[in-house]
Design goal:
The chain is mostly helical. The protein has 17 helices and 2 strands. It has one domain: Growth Hormone, Chain: A (Up-down Bundle), CATH 1.20.1250.20. Helices cover 75% and strands 1% of the residues. Strands 1-2 form a two-stranded antiparallel ribbon. The protein is globular.
Length: 416
Amino acid sequence: MSVAKSPSSAPKTAALLSAVVIVASLGYFVDIYDLVLFSIVRVESLKGIGITAPADITEQGQYLLSMQMGGMLLGGILWGILGDKRGRLSVLFGSILMYSLANIANGFVQTIDQYAWLRLIAGVGLAGELGAGITLVAESLPKEKRGYGTMIVASVGVSGAMVAYGVGQYFGWRNAYFIGGGLGLALLALRAGVFESGMFEQAKREGVERGNFASLFTNGPRLAKYIRCLFLGVPFWFLVGILITMAPEFGQEFGVQGAVTGGLSIFWCYFGLTLGDFTSGALSQLFKSRNRTLQLFIVACATMVGVYLYGLHGASTTMFYLVCFLIGYAGGFWALFVTVSAEQFGTNLRSTVATTAPNFARGAIVLINPAFSALKPSLGITGAATVIGAVTLLLAFFSASTLPESYGKDLDYVEE
């Protein structure tokens, strides 16, 4: 149940290019840089600590990615609850500090165990920035403009992956971690210009219970809505965690004419994602519908997955990377998914949902990877990817079709 506040309690709203939008955008930029950096330097870094057999590189790479995503599962709950209890700003900058220090430490690893634990800690830190930033932007902008605000955050943010590729290619994997951590620490200098959400401050003054994660599971309709929000985000991490991260293995399976690299596959995928996030955000404003836009992009995503898995046999590397770009573009509804998740719930649970939803979706790779490995022996790499892709995309389309429309929704209310 939700309870609206009186119009007199509505907080003042910020301009579209206010400090909160700029800092949230730059924070997400560094977040994405650090999030995908491991996938970019996976092979080089594992060889750098003495793991050289191709099978071991694949196995240990999946293990480290699972540790990172497992950390994000834990961090999603931690930062989400803190965002509703202590405030959006404390999470925004606390998470940036944690993942920045962890990534600097990643530059010094010498063993797989050190690498794994630091990816776990980095994952916990990486879990907080996006949810806190999107929540803060959504609560600070006028309801007619918040879709544009989150569009800016996403478009600036995901371009961090392309910078990560360039840094990883030209500066070496250890320096790439140092640079990522340094960028995060530098961003903390901007914290003085950002103010807390007025909606959060109002709920705090009124003594509303905030950040009760368990309350998501004690109300049937609320739980059903939350689960559908989670399903919206899972397909993207199938795309990135399986199709793109393992692009070299798929390229070999397809007989692509030339060597496919994980770094370039991620670069082109995230280039597409940058444009896709911009497009999906703009279309959701133009259509005045988040749900219709999500449905359109999920269908496009399913089409491009089909092309990737069944249309690239014997293709050139140029064609392969073009499809990676188009997969990223079609999958560019990530920020829209987080925005929708934030818009579905009241002020006292908004940060909890906006932070846990994307991180549970990201953390789904912990389930997707073992499922993929289990299906591979009987179905092959292509068949296993087809089954997982079909399940995740169908669940996402169902969710986009049944969630309440949230475009233009007044967010100044609380859940009871």
